[in-house]
């Protein structure tokens, strides 16, 4: 008996057929494009609450993580995948069922009157209570490969959840900085309306005094109207951006509290990028793509194992009697043990099983291509965000110098016009140039912070969740959010 059990354990623990997973080659460089030297530390190693130190933005991010329906959907999908992985584990264990109940049968025999052969109608009842056991011995590893596949699918769903968190934090931060950029542009537009209104008053006084003419007055009126038209257009964009951000964080459309002087205070500081290879372990979309590849590889092994015969141990035991009185007596005991070898099904269905195996191999090739494409996309995201931050920083420095020069040109144009040594066109042109430059600077500052956010997201940062805030802090954040 001990030898039989040892042999059975050896069969069950046999090596699983099919290819074992090995991470395929992926195109990788030693450094990111634009990165002077390789560095171990990465911007993405910081949790988001240490990266985005704007208080109002932190409140919005916490609210988004608590209320986002996309995140709730991803969490539910993780729960589904977890249970599927447990189901695949259960398939490795014996299946046990218990049933019982009364039955009634009638049998008619046409051989009535023949010597030694019973005939006529037979009616009899039976009472049965029986337990059955069925256990497929995983000789070739088919069930273990399916378990590997289900567990890899679970890991993929978990990384998808992390990816939703990364995307959510990136989208909220990006929307917040876009909103602040619009605030800067609106501030510029309103200041320009005031400045052009003052210039118009000057032109009107000159016309009334007989020094000026209606041409310069009407030209300035058109310039003022152009600036005034910019204000409601920006207000519309701000309201729509607030509505979009409100829905993203899981609240009805409404106003968004924000720190008014966060963007113009300082440019985003330079950040370390880390090693390109770290993206394979840190970016959720890359990790999820690899988990899907592992699942596809395990499916190849399961399909290959299905080409071979299966072995199932069956057993049953219980009681059966024609009378309830004798049902639970020694004479009613029944039992049986069997060994079922399913060798005909692989033989007769060999072509279909071979086609399934080749289909799974093709599916693995698809997963490998998707993984390599995802890795290349991750490298491209980092490179694009890095060059955006760098070049927009250079643009910002140039625009700040340009705005300073144009402010001075407007002042000088007005002085020269007042002294009669410059025409009204010099003043109008100087004001128009200043307005465009200031709007460009506000847009550039916003784009620079958006690039900073995109770099953090591209490096795979932001999926960690903070510890729950104390009750007093949550109350303060709630009041601030309202």
| Secondary-structure element series | HHHHEEHHHHHEEHHHH
What does the radius of gyration come to? 38 Å
* CATH topology title: Outer membrane efflux proteins (OEP)
Average predicted local confidence, pLDDT: 83
Q: How would you describe what is shown here?
A:
This protein is of the alpha+beta class and 482 residues long. Helices cover 63% and strands 11% of the residues. The protein has helices at 2-12, 48-51, 55-67, 69-90, 142-208, 214-248, 262-265, 279-282, 284-305, 344-348, 350-418, 424-458, 471-481, and strands at residues 95-109, 120-137, 310-321, 333-342. Strands 1-2-3-4 form a four-stranded antiparallel sheet. Helix 5 (142-208) packs antiparallel against helix 6 (214-248) and helix 11 packs antiparallel against helix 12 (424-458). Mean pLDDT is 83; it is low at 1-13 and 470-482.
Topology diagram in text:
Layout: H1 2-12, H2 48-51, H3 55-67, H4 69-90, E1 95-109, E2 120-137, H5 142-208, H6 214-248, H7 262-265, H8 279-282, H9 284-305, E3 310-321, E4 333-342, H10 344-348, H11 350-418, H12 424-458, H13 471-481
Antiparallel strand pairs: 1-2, 2-3, 3-4
């Amino acid at each position: 008996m001990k030898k039989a059990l040892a042999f059975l354990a050896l069969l069950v623990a046999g090596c699983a057929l099919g290819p074992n997973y090995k991470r395929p080659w992926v195109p990788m460089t030693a450094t990111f494009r634009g990165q002077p030297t390789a560095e171990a530390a990465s911007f993405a190693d910081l949790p988001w609450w240490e990266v985005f130190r704007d208080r109002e933005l932190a409140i919005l991010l916490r609210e988004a993580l608590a209320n986002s329906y996309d995140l709730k959907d991803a969490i539910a999908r993780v729960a589904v995948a977890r249970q599927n992985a447990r189901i695949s584990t259960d398939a490795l264990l014996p299946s046990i069922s218990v049933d019982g109940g009364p039955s009634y049968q009638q049998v008619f025999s046409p051989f009535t009157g023949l010597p030694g052969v019973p005939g006529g109608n037979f009616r009899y009842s039976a009472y049965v209570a029986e337990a059955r056991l069925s256990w497929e011995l995983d000789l070739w590893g088919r069930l273990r490969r399916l378990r590997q596949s289900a567990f890899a699918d679970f890991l993929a769903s978990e990384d998808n959840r992390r990816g939703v968190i990364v995307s959510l934090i990136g989208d909220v931060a990006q929307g917040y900085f876009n909103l602040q950029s619009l605030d800067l542009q609106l501030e510029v537009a309103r200041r320009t309306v005031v400045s052009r209104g003052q210039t118009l008053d000057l032109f009107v006084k000159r016309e009334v005094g007989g020094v000026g003419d209606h041409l310069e007055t009407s030209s300035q009126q058109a310039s003022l109207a152009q600036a005034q038209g910019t204000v409601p257009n920006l207000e519309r964009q701000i309201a729509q951006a607030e509505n979009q951000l409100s829905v993203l964080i899981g609240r009805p459309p409404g106003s968004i509290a924000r720190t008014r002087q966060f963007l113009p205070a300082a440019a985003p500081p330079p950040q370390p990028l880390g090693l390109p290879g770290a993206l394979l372990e840190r970016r959720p979309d890359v990790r999820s793509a690899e988990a899907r590849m592992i699942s596809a590889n395990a499916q190849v092994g399961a399909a290959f194992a299905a080409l071979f015969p299966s072995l199932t141990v069956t057993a049953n035991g219980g009681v059966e009697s024609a009378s309830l009185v004798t049902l639970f007596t020694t004479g009613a005991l029944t039992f049986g043990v069997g060994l079922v070898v399913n060798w005909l099904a692989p033989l007769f269905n060999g072509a279909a099983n071979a086609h399934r195996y080749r289909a799974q191999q093709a599916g693995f090739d698809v997963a490998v291509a998707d993984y390599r494409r995802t890795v290349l996309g991750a490298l491209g995201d980092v490179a694009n965000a890095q060059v955006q931050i760098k070049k927009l920083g250079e643009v910002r420095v140039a625009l700040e110098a340009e705005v300073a020069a144009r402010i001075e040109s407007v002042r000088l144009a007005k002085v020269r016009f007042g002294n009669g040594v410059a025409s009204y066109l010099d003043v109008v042109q100087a004001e128009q140039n200043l307005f465009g430059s200031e709007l460009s600077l506000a847009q550039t500052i916003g784009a620079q912070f958006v690039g900073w956010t995109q770099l953090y997201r591209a490096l795979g940062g932001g999926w960690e969740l903070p510890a729950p805030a104390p009750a007093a802090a949550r109350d303060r954040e709630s009041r601030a959010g309202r």
